[in-house]
Amino acid sequence: MTPRRRIVAALLWLGGWLPAAAQTDGATRRSGFDAMSASLQAMQRDDAQNPGMLSVADGEALWRGAPAPGGRACADCHGDARQSLRGVAARYPDWDAIDRRPVNLAQRINLCRTRNQAAPAWPPESPELLSLEAYVAHQSRGLPLQPSAKPELAPARAQGRELFAQRFGQLNLACALCHDALAGRRLAGNPIPQGHVNGYPTYRLEWQALGSLRRRIRNCMTGVRAEPFAEGSAEMAALELYLAQRSAGLLVETPAVRP
Amino acid sequence: MARTRIQVPATARRDEVVEIRTLIAHTMETGYRAGSDGRTLPRDILRRFSCRYNGELVFSAELYPAIAANPYLAFSLRVDASGSLSFTWEGDNGFAQTESATITVT
Predict the structure, then answer these.
(1) Reported pTM
(2) Domain with A113 in it
(3) B61 is in which domain, residue-wise?
(4) Is A9 part of a structural domain of the chain?
């Protein structure tokens, strides 16, 4: 068997085996950081080495600069991000009262651009959007994730919980099968993390770049040969909401480094 | 201009060995990968890094396609006089960037 065949066979075998659901509760939550090698942990911990900090620095420049000459910069309204945005990213995704839908941090940044700065929205995964998102999220580094408890978010969060447990794709796997039941064990030699969302946008060595949680979810979904949820879809928003709830209490690590 | 992060201690004692750390934003495109249209992406890497201390070359490195994006280079330097350090990265497509830092030796 080729290595790839072997992985698929292993996944199919896992898919046929339904272990007792071992939900990751508050006491057993582990950041993916804990499963990394010492050298990779050092790379994340040391701001001089962490390549994500290059994007954070780019984001700071975008924060201070006006999107167009004569326009308003983020800093003109929000002031010093180190104070005004401390802890903000830790409660996202949040409810947008105008559009009446949940929005993640990247969507909030784009809404702020179109509503208040008369600037076009940045495309998803564009370097500018990722940099500014990283800069904003970085202001919450070291604070525990505290998802918004607004009642409007409850239905979407419940939907996200269902999606997390739902099997999909040609391999017919659910997120929960690996990230709840088999977390801490190994898949093709790699540790299976609990799949927490406390470090996004994250610098992944596999990507050689910073990427968003949406990109990571798409990665996982194409891995089980499912059609990924579309950018900006209700399913993606629901899953993001549930994942934030599932990671509540873990400390924000943005920009995290992952293998 | 690529974003860089350079760490040089502001002060050091004479003949002390200090650690200099540099990081630069660069894709380090290998020239072997296919793009989304299936065509090979042209190579775009940094080829050389050098550090000069008061004009004297004290460290240099050749970089190759296997080196990861956003190269991080750290090295040790024995300092004997106050002055400036200049860091130069050169690469494909005429890439050239120089940054500088100062160190006070007491």
Answers:
(1) 0.89
(2) 52-80+93-138
(3) 4-31+44-105
(4) no
